Amino acid sequence: MTPGRSWGCRGVAEAVELARAIAACPHLRLIGLAGYEGVIGCDRDPHTTDAVSDFCDLLENTA
């Protein structure tokens, strides 16, 4: 781990588990949630924009 850097999770269950572990530790504080949608696509095709929208909904629901 590098101080001041972020860590990552590969699914909702893992993110929830990490958040619970952070909440149980008095020395840590969860300050945000981020995602990277760039691998989904970069065009304006409806399938791509729907997939990006779904990904953003997943982030919101996870938070």
Automatic annotation (TrEMBL):
Q: What is this protein called?
A: Uncharacterized protein
Q: Which SUPFAM superfamilies match?
A: PLP-binding barrel (SSF51419)
